[in-house]
Write a structure and sequence with these properties.
This protein is mainly β. Helices cover 4% and strands 52% of the residues. It folds into two domains: 9-83 and 173-242, Pnp Oxidase, Chain A; 86-170, no CATH class. The relative contact order is 0.22.
């Protein structure tokens, strides 16, 4: 007899990019793949149907996985050109002290945009103005990453949030607007092994319609990936193999 235990392993390989780099859904938590048909009963004078006809079918899948992978997100969901090297990073409440009316953030040479300033001691939010700040106001040069404050704020500790670029590390997906109907297609392969018994399901053509990034206090962020399967150009949905 054959049993299966655990979340198994799920792979995706783009049908759009050539050559395609296969990607694995890392730290896979669970996978569900539903095969569902509509049905239409035929009734006569009695309560139970005389016959039931099977109608159209739908194959829907959902995977929850905890390991982030730019190649997987790009190839299997966004379907854009390959991710570029480098990333946009966010400095969250970088500690600084106002000196001579000025704060120059650490990553000023690759500065992108301002995300706000608060006072370290009590969380007071500073108000951004174009120039000539008074009281608890500031102005920001988003070319140089230099923040200017009123002289009454000198020696005050503040927390500065902003974005900057890191050209050497990471990957970046630029999410451009695509024409309606455009969507990446991929081969989906699910497999699970228990006691040397394996089941493998290959879906020849898949398309994802939903990617969810949901965070939770005191818990891991586990992206959720929804997809549908359909027949390929040869009118084949895929294959299912098992040892029993």
């Amino acid at each position: 007899m054959q049993y299966q235990f655990g979340s198994g392993v799920l792979y995706g390989r783009s049908l759009t990019n050539t050559p395609a780099t296969p990607v694995r859904f890392g730290a896979l938590q669970d996978v569900s793949i539903d095969f569902a048909f509509t049905s239409k009963p035929l009734y006569g004078s009695f309560q139970f149907p005389l016959a039931v006809g099977r109608g159209t079918a739908k194959v829907q899948g959902k995977a929850n996985f905890a390991q982030f992978n730019a190649q997987a997100f790009n190839d299997l969901f966004f379907g854009l050109s390959n991710p570029t090297t480098g990333e946009t990073k966010t400095a969250v409440q970088e500690a600084q002290t106002i000196s001579a009316n000025i704060v120059t953030v650490t990553n000023n040479s690759t500065y992108v945009q301002d995300l706000g300033v608060v006072k370290s001691s009590d969380g007071t939010v500073y108000t951004r103005v174009t120039s000539g700040p008074v009281g608890q106001q500031y102005s920001c040069n988003e070319t140089t990453g230099v923040y200017t404050f009123n002289n009454t704020q000198n020696a005050v500790a503040v927390l500065v949030s902003y974005q900057y670029t890191d050209a050497a590390n990471g990957k970046k997906i630029t999410m451009t607007n695509q024409l309606l109907g455009n969507s990446p297609q991929f081969i989906g392969v699910f497999t699970s092994i228990y006691n040397s018994k394996q089941i493998s399901l290959t879906l020849n053509a898949c398309m994802s319609n939903k990617l969810t990034l949901a965070t939770k206090l005191e818990d891991w962020t586990v992206p959720s990936f929804d997809f549908e399967a359909f027949c390929d150009a040869s009118n084949v949905l895929g294959t299912m193999s098992m040892d029993e």
